[in-house]
Amino acid sequence: MVGKRSGVAARLKQVNPLLLNVHCVCHRLALACTDTNHTLKYISNVELLLRQLWQYFQNSPKRMAAYLKIQTQLKSVRLEGKAVKGVTKRLKKACHTRWLSFEASVKAVHEDYEAVLQTLAHFQESDAIASGLLTKMKKLKFIGVIYILRDILPILGDLSRRFQKGYLSFAAIVPAINMTKDRLHNLVADAKPMESLSRDIESFTDMCALVENIDNRFTDSSPVLEAFNVFDPMLVPDSGVEMRSYGHGQIEVLSNHYFKENPDKSDRLKAEWEGMKYHLRDVIKPSMPDSVKSGKEQTETTTEWCLLQLLKNIAVRQLYPNVIYIAEVIASLPVSNAWPERGASTLKALKTRLRNRLSTSMLESLLHICINAPKPSSLEGQQLVKAAVNAWLENRNRRKLPKQSGSATVTAASATSVIDVEDAGVQTDPYMDVSEDVIRTAVDIALKKLSLDEYDAGDSDSDWSDDEDCCSKNL
User: Between 113-123 and 61-74, two packed helices, what is the crossing angle to 10 degrees?
Assistant: First the structure.
């Protein structure tokens, strides 16, 4: 799709050179990490080893129980029930297709390295797999790489989580990448986690290859994407001196990309920008809501809000047609496809093997609730829950149970009353005490309807006793 030579994006650019190819920033970061994984072969070995370690414990409840027990013994605590789950931790899977999930796996091994070794040592005599894993994990090189990855992966994880936000701004991409590269450079320069092991691990200085791979993945469209921050009204200066030259560099980059073969439109774009920046300062910026400025709602950035206001205004479209053309491009340009993948993950969690008979309408409603609904703890979420309950109750007449008294004591009568549940949605009234005469009358009516002989308890008992005698004699 995004191949530089014969990919779909490259072929479309041959038809229209103005197209801007934006590869998903989350996938770019993952590919940069994967490229580093191929460069440093031992990292691939560590990833495979951690995945095998996870499978070794995950596929055996006996081994997992022994591992958790050794953890509690090493931490010198005696806990029961849920408290054990809070102290003991399970290993995490290192997924090859999601390189950044490596972080959780490395963190789990680093925190409970001693417990892992003791558990493998316990099973090594009777299990060849445990013996092999123990031999590899006791090597100094493996320990050193775990220490290195423990400090590197959180840096990449922060960048990945920032890219996965649905309100990512164009202006934040390049600064976030530069900050990550600086943190990686500082980590290599300081070498604090590996001062005692760096002499035995030759791959430590090679981690700078990760910075080079990040540069290779993000340098294609970075100048144009960074120039889009000119539409952020919060960056527009208030003073007249800075206002004169504000945005000239960004507009020059945009005009060279979109109007390179049309000098007249390029000049008109620069002229229109001289008026647009004052419109951003005097009209758009003062009218921006405080919730958007502070970022509390986190539904849209200041740039997105500004672009929507410009595209709605017909007068602005007529005054600045070339600037609005750039604004339309920015508003329709996707930076990340994390949200559709998040929807696919939600679908997998909802429609499981045991719920594969869900109808399309029900599945669509559940997906809409899980993806777009507000948090239940928020005010809007509580209002929606109350409205949904009221709508369910008003949909048809439903029988309601009588309200119980407010007394906290349980009486003998209330303790004997049982509430029967017909199905998941209908509640029935408590059972009532029925006399023997009522039961006898119901039995007589049933016998007449079925054309059966009259029921005689005495005859039934005598026949049963005779049968018992016959059986005993035969025995």
Answer: 130
Which residues fall within 8 angstroms of residue 267, CB to CB, at 6 or more apart? none
Judged on CB neighbours under 10 Å (0-12, 13-18, 19+), 2 is middle
Which tokens hold the place of 23?
A: 């590869």
Following DSSP, what letter does each residue of 220-271 receive, concatenated?
Answer: SSHHHHHHGGGG-GGGS-SSHHHHHHTTHHHHHHHHHHHSTT-HHHHHHHHH
State the Cα–Cα distance between residues 2 and 257, nearest whole angstrom. 19
Alpha carbon distance 231, 280 (integer Å):
8
Rounded-to-10 torsion of CA 191, 196, 197, 199: 90
* Whole-number pLDDT of residue 459: 47
The two structure tokens encoding residue 402: 């009588």
Alpha helices per DSSP H over 88-247: 102-111, 113-123, 128-137, 140-163, 173-190, 208-218, 222-227, 240-245
- Rounded CA separation 467/2 (Å): 86
Beta bridge partners of 18: none
Amino acid at 201: I
- Do the beta carbons of residue 118 and residue 70 sit within 8 Å? yes
- Total residue length of the chain: 475
Closest CA to 25 of 156, 153, 210, 151: 156
Distance, CA of 262 to CA of 280 (rounded, Å): 26
Task: Give yes or no for a contact between 91 and 57, defined as CB atoms under 8 angstroms apart.
Answer: yes
Gap between the Cα atoms of 177 and 309, Å rounded: 29
Contact 25, 168 (CB under 8 A): yes
Alpha carbon distance 292, 11 (integer Å): 39
Q: What is the pLDDT of residue 422?
A: 47
Using N-to-C axis directions, what is the helix angle for 102-111 and 113-123, rounded to 10°?
Answer: 80
The pLDDT value given to residue 194: 56
Q: Is 124 exposed, middle or buried (0-12, 13-18, 19+ CB in 10 A)?
A: middle
Please choose, from the candidates 181, 31, 50, the residue with its C-alpha nearest in 3D space to the C-alpha of residue 100. 31
Measured distance CA(164)–CA(95) in Å, rounded? 18
Which amino acid, one-letter code, is at 317? R
Residue whose C-alpha is closest to residue 53's, from 11, 125, 140, 113: 113
Q: Which residues of the chain have pLDDT under 50?
A: 196, 199-206, 407-431, 457-475
Q: Which of 26, 39, 341, 33 is nearest to 176 (CA)?
A: 26
Average pLDDT of the residues of the chain: 76
